[in-house]
Amino acid sequence: MGLPRWFRAFANSRRATSFISLISTFAGVGLLLDRPKGTILEWLSLPLIVFGGALITWAIWPARYASSDSSPSLSTRLLRRLTLDGRLVPLFPGFGAGLIVADVAYNWALSPTPVFQTEDIMVLLGAASLLGYGFVPARFTRERDFVLLFFLWLNAILVVPLLLARLYYSDFEKSVDLYSWVALAPETSAVLNALGVNSQVHAVAGSTAPGLTFTPQHVGIQVTVVITTSCSGIYSFGIFAAAFIAFVLTEYERPSRRVWFLLGLGLTAAYVANVLRMVVIVLVGFYTDTTQTELQNMLLAHSYAGWLIFLGWLALFWGPLVKYAPPESSSSKSQERNVRARRMEARCAACGDILSPTIPATRCMCRAMYHVACAGQGSGCVRCQRPIGTTSVLTSGGDRI
Question: Which CATH architecture has domain 345-401?
Answer without folding.
Answer: 2-Layer Sandwich (3.30)
